[in-house]
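Researcher: Here's a chain I'd like modeled. Treat it as a single chain, no partners, no ligands.
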Amino acid sequence: MPRTVVSNASTAWKGDLLAGSGTTTLDTSQLGTFDLSWKARSEESEKGTTSPEELLGAAHAACYSMQFSNMLAENGTPPTSVDTAAAVGFNIGEGGITGIELTVTAKIDGIDEDDFQRIADEAKSSCPVSKALAGVDITLKATLA
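Model: Modeled as a single isolated chain. C-alpha cells:
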C-alpha cells in the first residue's frame, strides 16, 4: 500500500521584495536555516545567501542522483558513484524559471555507453522532482567516467 511521507520547510520574509530579506528553514531534517534575498536571486551571487532556484537545484540534483542510481542497480549495473549538478535559470524580467540543466558524471562497471545514456535519460524523465517540474525545460548532459 502506498504511503505518503511529508517533508516540511518554511520561510520567514521581512520587508518588500527588493530591500527585504528572509530565512528558509529545513524543518523536517532540522539541518539548517538559510538566508534569502532578492539580490541572491537576481544578481547570481551573494555569498552566504541562497535563492529559491539554488534550493530547487539542490533538490533536483539529489532526486535525480537517487533515481539514476536505483535504475542502474535495477539494470544489474549498480554505480560506484553518481555526481549530479543542477543549473537552474531564472529570468528576472519575466519572473520565471527558464530551465534546468542537469549534469551527471557516473562511475559504473559493466555498462556500455548506449545503455548508460538510455538509463540516464529515463531517470531524468522519471525522477519525482522532474515530474513535478514538467512545465520547465529540463536538459541532461551525462558522462560515463
